[in-house]
Amino acid sequence: MTLTGGPSLPQERKLVTSIPGPKSQEMLARKNAAVAAGVGVALPVSIVAAGGGVMVDVDGNSLIDLGSGIAVTGVGNSAPAVVEAVTAQVQQFTHTCFTVTPYEGYIAVAEKLNEVTPGDHEKRSALFNSGAEAVENAIKIARHFTKKNAVVVFDHAYHGRTNLTMGMTAKNMPYKDGFGPFAPEVYRVPASYPYRDGLTGAEAAQVAITQIEKQVGADNLAAMIIEPIQGEGGFIAPAEGFLPALQEWATANKVVFILDEVQTGFARTGDRFAADHEGVVPDLITTAKGIAGGLPLSAVTGRAEIMDSAHAGGLGGTYTGSPISCAAALATIDTYEKENLAARATEIGAIITEFFAELQKNDDRIGDIRGRGAMMAVEFVESGSKNPAAALTSAIAKHAANEGVILLTCGTYGNVVRFLPPLSISDELLREALQIVADALAAN
Ligand SMILES: *Cc1c(COP(=O)(O)O)cnc(C)c1O
């Protein structure tokens, strides 16, 4: 089947087979015979084209996309500006290895990141391939700068699947189970989870800080890293004041304060970065997912004196800051700004919040509706309690998939449905998908 992706794809939900269809099932059989079992798939429909708010599969079904490939295609799949920039770049050159012979695209992305990330201090950036790689490098840089070793992470955190970032990630299944031993000097402290801990931001920060002081000691601590809205852990937005209190403590104690904005960055939460919501300025920020319209790229950006502390040759990699990904990133960041997609994210968030707030009046299994912008979630609980309703949550995602809606779940307790639509989705498609989620809830 040949079909061109991008916004010109018919913006409709259309099912011509059951999900997954026969051709997707054939593909799944090939996958199972050829691909390592550890590489699981959430929904085994094989995609042939995507754009706007839909994905079309090999059987000709058109599904509504509420996942954006996990918050990646914020500007939409095959966004025209990205396709154009990438096409032009591959015709010029595909690779040099920036640390052998440099090129402008990498430098231009660094300049752009230094400009748009929080804070107006002097900054430097370094580019990598994946979110996990950015996080690893942020830790490397913080350790090199402070000459200290310990790293503080939080409950419910997700930072990746490489050895160091696995150890920094909270959830055992599926991310860590059987994959140890993990890197030393990583210490976990409580996060702010307003729905479940009932604490103010200042109180939650005090709990974390006390634990750090008693169990780690600021003199040993190189870095504290946190997602400003926790992603895989359940789209947990901390109580107001939590992040500023942590930042203040870190600064006072010569601890590098790192925000992991791999999932929250670039318009997704309705601001340029989630940190902007409370005016928090991190020492270092890690970015990836939404940065390049689907091409692999990540970055660490931060204070010049910290970033410049590592010696030449200490940071890099064969493919880091690929010219193709850099071309895509420049076009992507430009698109967020030109099309004011942060404002669009806020509109999407308002539609989702209003929709579930209405349903919640008559269904107390909707425990919490939270998030910001187009990074929204609903936490499902058993009626009359706050007990996590994980089975209900997977049933909802399955029902939605059968009806042609790609819906992701998350959360430490597996009871959170998350909404991460591409910012190019129409209101009509979004509302149609939300109604299907409501139908799924009613049916379960
Ligand atoms: C996805 C994610 C990562 C890991 O990124 P990869 O590109 O999958 O390595 C790290 N941190 C956060 C907050 C993420 O959401």
Automatic annotation (TrEMBL):
Pathway stated in the Swiss-Prot or TrEMBL entry: Amino-acid degradation; 4-aminobutanoate degradation
Organism: Leucobacter komagatae
Catalysed conversion reaction: 4-aminobutanoate + 2-oxoglutarate = succinate semialdehyde + L-glutamate; (S)-3-amino-2-methylpropanoate + 2-oxoglutarate = 2-methyl-3-oxopropanoate + L-glutamate
Database matches in PROSITE patterns: AA_TRANSFER_CLASS_3
Pfam family name, one: Aminotran_3
Family: Belongs to the class-III pyridoxal-phosphate-dependent aminotransferase family.
Alphabetized SUPFAM superfamilies for the sequence: PLP-dependent transferases
UniProt GO BP: gamma-aminobutyric acid metabolic process
Keyword Transferase: yes
Keyword Zinc carried by entry: no
Domain of life, per lineage: Bacteria
Alphabetic keyword roster: Aminotransferase, Pyridoxal phosphate, Transferase
Coiled-coil intervals: none
Protein name (database record): (S)-3-amino-2-methylpropionate transaminase
UniProt cross-references to InterPro entries, sorted A to Z: 4NH2But_aminotransferase_bac, Aminotrans_3, Aminotrans_3_PPA_site, Class-III_PLP-dep_AT, PyrdxlP-dep_Trfase, PyrdxlP-dep_Trfase_major, PyrdxlP-dep_Trfase_small
Essential cofactor(s): pyridoxal 5'-phosphate
Enzyme class label: transferase
The enzyme's E.C. designation: 2.6.1.19, 2.6.1.22
GO MF entries: (S)-3-amino-2-methylpropionate transaminase activity; 4-aminobutyrate:2-oxoglutarate transaminase activity; identical protein binding; pyridoxal phosphate binding
